[in-house]
Amino acid sequence: MMLGSTGVEAIEFAGTDLLAVRELVAGGQIVLLRDDVPADRRPDQWPLDVVESVGECAAVPLSGLTGEGGPRYPLVIGQRESIRYLCSYADRVPSPPYPYEARPVVTDYREFRDLWVAEPGRFTPDADSYAIGHTLARLHSLKILHGDAHRGNWLFDREGRAMVADLRPVFLHCPPSPEQCATDIRPLLPSLNPNGWMSFRLSYRKTWPAEGRVIDLIQLTDLTGWAAAFRTRDYERAAELMGRQLTGECTPIVRVMLLANRAMARSRAGRHDDALRDIVDAAQLAKARSPHVANGLGIALAVVWCDKGDRTAALDTLSKVTGQPEQLLARLEPGDAQLPIMNM
Fold first, then answer.
1. HEC per residue, 309-334
2. Residue 230: helix, strand or coil by DSSP?
């Protein structure tokens, strides 16, 4: 249907499958949600619950655009810029809080990278961080966002379980996206050290095995799921997913990392020339924009040389990375070897 005199077309949606609405909005569509979404006896958080369930969007009742005011539905949902544009054409600007916008997600966590790339030492489990990881994963798996998970908002009972001291929950109608989960975790990160992060990460993944790429998003800026495919040696899929991320906006350091990992994935998939081009592109970009990570490309380049059958070149490359190139190459050579993911 067309929305008023704006010339904007909206997709009418009668169902309550907000995951489908999320996909439509992510693709740039505007959705006219006609029906109320059942709240399942949860607190009435409208429109917060609907908007956050879709994520990365904004919404305004259709009655707000016509200036009539009144019912909650139909509800117009779309990307923030699209809904702001529609509101600018309203006879009367909808009164606050409309357009209602979802909390922006965070996808860059490199400021905390020392938590996971620090030199490995003796791991000392952190019971409090482990307990928080369990509770936060449990909330996310139940379609609940904590809202403010910084360290001061947690208490611990006599059994060591983490309890929320100041819960500002958002009850969703569908599972939160990895970006939403990672953003919900972010307030906790400044209070953690490497032991605390490892404890949290182990507990979070153990409690919610289906969590997908939440941790990979934080540690690797993985926006498409390529890291999981890489670990399972589905290298064609990993290369494809890294390619998708590379078509979007990437900081130079993330682009270098993606190119290096895609080079290894393509190499193991038999695409040696493409792999070598990725390494050359990564090296040139690193030299120009991130010279401190140039040496980190050595292992990726060695994998490419090895797969091309040039063992001498692979050893020469590894000799600049380690004092034991033969031992390292022996670990990288087998076709079924678990290759390391470059994290720069």
1. CCHHHHHHHHHCCCCCHHHHHHHHCC
2. helix
The first and second tokens of residue 25, run together, are: 């909005």
Ranges of H-type helices in 142-193: 178-185
Q: Distance (Å, rounded) from C-alpha 243 to C-alpha 251?
A: 15
Query: pLDDT value at position 281?
Result: 96
Q: Tell me the residue length of the chain.
A: 344
Query: Coil, strand or helix: which one is 53?
Result: helix
Are the beta carbons of 14 and 32 closer than 8 angstroms?
no
Q: Name the DSSP class of 90.
A: S
Q: What is the mean pLDDT of the chain?
A: 90
pLDDT tens digits along 213-230: 999 999 999 999 999 999
The amino acid at residue 267 is S
Which is nearest to 289 in space by CA: 254, 332, 263, 260?
254
Q: Is 39 exposed, middle or buried, given 0-12, 13-18 or 19+ CB atoms closer than 10 A? A: middle
pLDDT digits (tens, 9 = 90+) for 196-211: 999 999 999 999 998 8
